[in-house]
Amino acid sequence: RLRRALTRSRRSMRSLHHGDVVVATTVTDAHLVVVAESVEREEIDELSKARRYKRRSRIILIVFVLVILGLVALVLGLVLHMRGSDDGPGGNDKNIDDMSALEQCRRRGYVSDGTNIPDPCSSIPGCGSLIEEGIVDVCSPQKMASMWLDLDIRRNETNAGLDGCSVLTLRENRTNVDPTNCLEQLYTMATFYFALSGDNSKISSKIETNLWLSQEDVCTWEGIKCRQGNVAAIYLGDKNLSGIVPKELPRMRSLRIVKLSNNQINDIEIDLPLMVNLTELRVLDLSGNKIKSTIPSQIGGLNKLNVLNLNGNEIDGSLPTELGNLEELQFFDAGKNLLTGPIPTEVGNLKYLYQLDLYDNSLSGPIPSQLGNLSNLEMLLLGGNSQNRKNGHSGTIPTEIGRLKNLEFLGIVEGNLSGPIPSVLGELDLRILALSGNDLTGTIPPQLGNITHLEFLVLGANNLNGVIPSELGNLKFIRALELRENSLNGSISIKLCDPIFLDGLCFDEGVENKVCDIPCMFEGEEWVHLLPSLPGDR
Questions:
Q1: Is-contact 293 315, C-beta < 8 A?
Q2: Disease resistance R13L4/SHOC-2-like LRR domain: from which residue to which, for each copy (predicted)?
Q3: What are the sequence ranges of the domains in the chain?
Q4: Do residues 214 and 193 touch, judged by C-beta distance below 8 A?
Q5: Which of 49, 245, 352, 440 has the lowest CB atom count within 10 Å?
C-alpha cells in the first residue's frame, strides 16, 4: 500500500520544477521507502513465526499420536500373549486374525510350510457342510484343512469345486463325479495331513513337489490310491508320521486299505459310531506305532475286514467279544501290547483266520477250546509275559488244538499252563513248537518224534520229568532243541549234527548227547525272531 502511495506521489511531483519543491519531494520519497521496507520486514517476521509455530504443533501432534499407538499395541500384545499362555496349543484363538493364527500355528509346530492361508472355508458355498460345528481352535487339523481348502478354491476361482475334480471327471471319462464328495475327500485328506505330518515327516517334504496338498485331485497324492475317483487305499507306512489319526477317517466310505505301520502315531480319534461307515475296509495296519487306546467294540461292524494288525503299540484293555463278528478276518495280530483279561471264546468263530498273534501281552485265563475250530490256522502265538508270569494263561493245553491240521507255528510260552503236553500235537505238521516257561508236568510225549518237519522244539523251564524219548532222534530237520530247567534224564541221539543245520542243543548237565558235542547257542526266546514273514506279519 505504501508503494502505491509513493508511486502516486511521484507522478504528482513530476510537474514541479522549483528547486525547494524537488528537494522536499526527494526527502519524502526516501522516508517512505525506509518505512515501507521496515513494515515489510515485520510482516515477513510475523509470517515466519506463524509457520514455525504451526510446524512445531504438527510435530508434537504426530509424536503424541505415535506414543498413543505404541501404548495400544503394547497393551494388545500383552493381552494376546497372556491368552496364548493360558490357552496353550488347544486354546480358544477364534478372535485372532488368520495371519496371526497361522503364525501361532507355525510356532506351535502345526504348519510346516509358509503358505499364505486366507479366510476360513465356511464362507465358500457348499463347503460349510464339510466342517464339523464347533471348531474354534484355529490350530486344529480341521481348521487348518478348511483354510487350505478355501485357499485352493480361491486359486481356481470356482465355487463348484477344485480343478482337480474337473480333471478327474475328464480323466475317468465320467460325468457322475460328485463335486461335494470330491471336496469332502480333499478336506478329509488335508485334515489327515495336518493331524499327522510334522516337520520331520516324509510327506511334509512332498508339498514342494506337488505330491501332497497339490491342486491336482487327491488321487495323485503320494501313497493314495483310488478306484473310480474315490480314495480306496492309504499306504503311508514308514513315513515318520506323528500325532492322532483324525476322526474324519470314516468319511472315506470307499476305503479298502489303511496301512500306517511303523510311524509315531499316538492315538486314534475316530468317532466310534462312524466306524460302521467303513463297510469296504479290508486291511487296517496300525502296527509299530505308539497308540494308547483300547480296541473298540464297534470294530465288530467291519464285517469285510481281512487283516487287522495292531502289533507293537501300547493298546490296553480287553479283547472285545465283537471280534467274533469279523467273519472274513484272516490275520489278527495284537502282539506286543498291554492287553489284559481272557481270550474271548468268540474268536473261535473266525473260520478263515490263518494267523493269530497275541504274544507278549498280559492276557490271562484258560485257552479257549474253541480255537480248535480255526481249521485254517497256520500260526498261533500266545503268552510271552515274562515279567508277570503268574497272570499268564492258566489251565491245560486244550486237546482241540490237535484238530488244527494246517498249524505250522505253535507258541504258548511264559504263562501258567499246567498238566501234560497233549500227545495229539504229534499229529500236526509243525515247524515250531514252543511251550517253555510254563508249569507243564509229565513226560515228553514220544509222538513228538513224528513231527517230520519240526525245526524248533522249545520245552525248557517247565516241570517235565522222566526219560527223554528216543523218538526225538527222528527229527531230521531239527535246528534247536531246548530242554533245560526240567527234571529230565537219559540220553539223546541226534542223527544230524551238521552245525549248518543245528543251531543248538540245550540240555541240563544230566542229559548226555551221544553223537556230537555242540555248545548251546540257543538262548531264551530267540525262536520268536526266527519266525518266517507271513503276509502282514511283523
A1: yes
A2: 248-382
A3: 2-88
A4: no
A5: 49
